[in-house]
Amino acid sequence: MPQLNPAPWFFIMLTSWLVFSLITQPKLLHFTSTNLPSNKMSMTTKTTPWTWPWI
């Protein structure tokens, strides 16, 4: 059965992971994010309790 022979598939998997980790990933990490996290304090709104009409 050909799928049990790991020789061609292991080489393809190893090559694709090397290309991803050595070439593609560093190029993607150089992009700057457009939504940088801010250190502003978030405003908390005061909530009023709901008054149930049947109580």
UniProtKB/TrEMBL annotation:
Ranges annotated as spanning the membrane: 6-23
Keyword set includes Ubl conjugation: no
Keywords linked to the UniProt accession: ATP synthesis, CF(0), Hydrogen ion transport, Ion transport, Membrane, Mitochondrion, Transmembrane, Transmembrane helix, Transport
Membrane topology: Single-pass membrane protein
Record carries keyword Transmembrane helix: yes
Coiled coil: none
Main localization, broad class: mitochondrion
Name of the protein: ATP synthase complex subunit 8
Organism: Mesembrinibis cayennensis
